[in-house]
Design a protein that fits this description.
Rossmann fold; 8 strands; signal
Length: 235
Amino acid sequence: MTQTLLLQNLPSVLCGLVLGPQPGESVLDMCAAPGGKTTHLATLMDDKGLLVALDRAESRLSRVRALCDLWGLSCVRAHAHDANDYQGLRATVQDLPERFDRVLLDAPCSGLGQRPLLVCRQTAGQLRSYPPQQRALLDTAVRLLKPGGTLVYSTCTLTTSENEAIVAWALARFSELRLVPQEPHLGGVGRAGAGLDDDQRHLVQRFEGQQVWPESQDYNVDTIGFFIACFRKAE
């Protein structure tokens, strides 16, 4: 990392590009630390508009602030606060919007897509604890998204229960949400058997790491395990 270059995994970069924030918009990064995606969003916005970056731990959020300071980004307002209590934050901080044009939920997850990961030390109970957290955050994200707005949900894990099953749950719960095509779309299709039909599985991006890719591809998708879904909220 330097003042001119911040390296990220390919899927992490895609999150910002798929969300597509524009200068002057209001954007929410619900789980912002350590700040790589936050700074990418701010640069895509040309540092114009408002980008609210949240994380529950002040120690983690300090890294977000440090990155923004390093890059001279002024559109970011970082707060150590639980995104599920956003209205509580609005009660104590002035000039925060009620809803946002775009929301990024890079959700807490089991992290099983990280590499190298030679040993998994998480228990079955710990793995089961993530989907309820993800559903709660996604419920909040939908409520904080303006009609017509864009929501990106992402994880760095491989489990169907934290990815396709969460997307299927959201589509069933929120009639105003629909999956939309992603650009760029470099990942594979979603897994079957979690409630998504074939069309929906082709709208999400799943990265599971691959050693061989088509010679016609000018990019290498042998990256960390990752999942991206993009929703649009009806007007």
